[in-house]
Amino acid sequence: MTTKLEKAISELNQLPESEQNAIAGLIEDELLWEISLKNSQQQLENLADEALREFQAGRTKAADC
Known about the structure:
Layout: H1 3-12, H2 17-39, H3 41-56
Protein name: Addiction module component
Organism: Nibrella saemangeumensis
């Protein structure tokens, strides 16, 4: 464990249990998001390739922003 992480955990230990649980939830969410992105890279690449092919074939139009 890095010194920075050890310091952060030490400071977290000073917080009330409810705040510690809230921060733990945020960390878990972040880890799940990162895992999800890593596992979906091929799917994202496939979607990007499909979108590019549709654009090059002229089957797309500008979005109203």
